[in-house]
Design brief:
Layout (H helix, E strand, L loop, with lengths): L1 E6 L5 H16 L4 E6 L6 H17 L1 H12 L1 H18 L1 H10 L3 E4 L2 H12 L6 E5 L16 E3 L3 H9 L7 E2 L15 H7 L8 E5 L8 H8 L4 E5 L4 H10 L4 E4 L5 H7 L2 E4 L3 H9 L3 E4 L6 H11 L4 E2 L3 H13 L1 H14 L4 H12 L6
Parallel strand pairs: 1-2, 1-3, 3-4, 4-5, 5-6, 7-8, 7-10, 8-9, 10-11, 11-12
């Protein structure tokens, strides 16, 4: 049996979800061929650079432009044309990926981004592949681009995402709300006492983790200025080197500053709350660890929809005002019972075993006769 796990390297979440699935399936299907593919690496150079870099530029410097593009492609009276145009241009510029799938004709294609899932569905509808297509929606909201005829199973983040997929025309029997796959390190039980010692933290102090993805976006410096006297802060700047340098120079006594790291789960384990951007993968990780969030700088479109859906469930407060964020943090610090109430709500909706759930879906539904 041959399985292709496809993603698009646009932001970090799609790739992280694909990697989590790849690691799990490689371990549990040791005698099967499992491939991890970035659709943009099998596309034209211009398409690859434009698709990835334009997204990064808009998110960092022109979120208003991303908002226009998102809602233009979402609006009912324009979505049909925008979906057609996106699909047509993708088929034209990702011909290497189409050729790869046609030649390989894998038994299963699992996609964590709508670009490879749409291309796979196109080939299946044309009779060029017979693959079983699993579409893993990596946000809590659903953009119409996620839906394509020919996809066999949609994996949803939860019940509210499932309802949105049904509104978009997906049949309920074709949806499994097993959750968004995350790395197993967010599922571990950590020795907090050992981590307090490792990171030189006081066990009786309130701890706040501040991390806003690989770009290090948002009013982080102003938030640190407001909070540094009231809590121990763990600030992850990721690839934002300028922010990292500025914060290091200030030498706040209760602030630890990190660059790009691969041990975020350890910092999450020792923290009381997290100030972060509401990406689908980040939300799934903090839900698994029951780490109460405050959301900042949501990307217009998918991340604002993520916030809206979580706020309906009573999870997460959103603000971009550093003073208001300080007040929210102090409220949580002084009212530990409120933290426990939110953690209880998180416990009710979290789906930490998403990779296992997706494995069960493909194992039960996707094997061809004789495979």
């Amino acid at each position: 049996m041959k399985i292709v796990i496809a993603y698009a390297s646009v932001g970090g979440g799609h790739q992280k979800a694909a990697q989590a699935l790849y690691d799990y399936l490689k371990h549990h299907l040791r005698y099967e061929q499992v491939l991890l593919i970035d659709v943009l690496e099998k596309s034209s150079f211009i398409f690859r650079k434009t698709y990835a870099n334009s997204y990064a530029f808009m998110v960092a410097y022109a979120p208003w432009l991303w908002a226009i593009l998102f809602w233009t492609t979402y609006a009912p009276f324009l979505s049909s044309f925008s979906q057609w145009f996106h699909a047509f241009s993708a088929r034209l510029l990702a011909r290497r990926f189409l050729k790869f799938l046609t030649q390989e004709n894998p038994d299963i294609i699992i996609s964590t981004h709508f670009l490879p899932s749409g291309l796979s569905a196109y080939l299946k509808n044309k009779g060029k592949i017979t693959s079983y297509i699993v579409n893993v929606v990596t946000d809590f909201g659903v953009h119409p681009f996620w839906v394509s005829p020919g996809i066999d199973i949609y994996v949803a983040a939860g019940e509210m995402t499932k309802k949105q997929l049904i509104v978009e025309g997906v049949m309920p029997q074709n949806i499994q709300d097993t959750g968004i796959p995350i790395d197993e390190k967010f599922l571990r039980s950590y020795d907090k006492a050992a981590l307090f010692k490792k990171y030189n933290l006081k066990s009786d102090e309130f701890k706040v983790l501040i991390i806003t993805g690989s770009f290090g976006l948002g009013p982080i410096e102003a938030i640190v200025e407001e909070l540094n006297r009231h809590a121990q802060l763990l600030v992850v700047c990721a690839h934002n080197n300028r922010l990292y340098s500025r914060l290091k120079r200030k030498t706040y006594p209760q602030v630890q500053v990190f660059g790009f790291i691969d041990y975020v789960s350890e910092l999450m384990a020792v923290s009381d709350i997290i100030i972060t951007k509401p990406g689908g993968l980040t939300i799934s990780e903090l839900l698994a660890m029951e780490l109460v969030p405050i959301f900042i700088s949501p990307i217009p479109g998918q991340e604002r929809e993520n916030v809206r859906l979580l706020e309906i469930l009573g999870i997460g407060i959103s603000s971009n005002c550093p003073k208001k964020i300080r007040d929210i943090v102090l409220d949580y610090k002084n009212k530990q019972r409120d933290l426990e109430i939110v953690r209880g709500k998180m416990r009710q909706i979290k789906k930490p075993q998403a990779t296992e759930g997706i494995y069960d879906v493909i194992r039960k539904n996707s094997f061809r006769p004789g495979s």
